[in-house]
Amino acid sequence: MPDGDFQFIALDVETACGDSASICQIGIACVGHDDTIHMWSVYVDPQMAFAPFNTQLHGIGADTVRGAPTFAQIWPAMVPLLSRHPMVQHSRFDEKAINAACRAHQLPRPRLT
């Protein structure tokens, strides 16, 4: 996971099914003050069944995430980085998914802008 001082972090998630909490991948792009971009992504075991539509959309399925950490395992490691930088997302979909996953796992979330 990138570390350092960034202008902002762009966040993107993919979900396994229609349940917003079913995050199966988290990707971040950290934009440095010199405009360099540090990218990082992780597959996440959503602990839910994959919908064929979602798998067709993003190409991630149960086999892809087998052995991957769960959201509850990976999120606490991400919070320190995400909490100290402005965060942006492509749409409210990402914020809704993060909020739902945090609620489902009783975990804190950073403010998304």
Automatic annotation (TrEMBL):
Alphabetical list of InterPro entries matching this protein: Ribonucl_H, RNaseH-like_sf, RNaseH_sf
Task: Report the record's Gene Ontology biological process terms.
Answer: DNA metabolic process
Q: Which UniProt keywords apply?
A: Exonuclease, Hydrolase, Nuclease
Check the record and name the Pfam families matching this protein.
RNase_T
Q: Which GO terms describe its molecular function?
A: exonuclease activity; nucleic acid binding
Which stretches make up the Exonuclease domain? 9-105
Protein name, entry field: Exonuclease
Q: Which organism is it from?
A: Loktanella salsilacus
